[in-house]
Amino acid sequence: MTTTNMSIIDGLYKAFAVGDVPAVLGRMDPNIVWNEAEGNAYSDGNPYIGPEAVLNGVFGRIMADHEYFNLKDIELHEMHNDKVFATLRYDAKHKNGNNYDAQVGHFWTLKDGKIVTFQQYVDTKKLHEATEK
Known about the structure:
By secondary structure, the chain is of the alpha+beta class. The chain is built from 4 helices and 6 strands.
């Protein structure tokens, strides 16, 4: 099961990289509980419940606020009890002209082949400084 979970999360990141939002959302349980890191501007809607809430409250806002937003240096780490931890970096340019390269951790929990919870960990100070107007 762990290998399957790693494959699901790997597929999610690959779909995100090419802008295949329906494939990303399709890996989520209908009742996914999604939390952005405390202090992140997008945490104001925590917890986001369901793929549509994630799309509108997180992904849509990221796309509206950024010229580009890429995930890089992704490493997946197998964990027990249907959990996967990903370490990565956000390589992004905010529409205010500021670029940033932030260290990130994503903690995923899966059940029956679907993502049921997500928790983001990120350098929120770096994000705040880059996204100030």
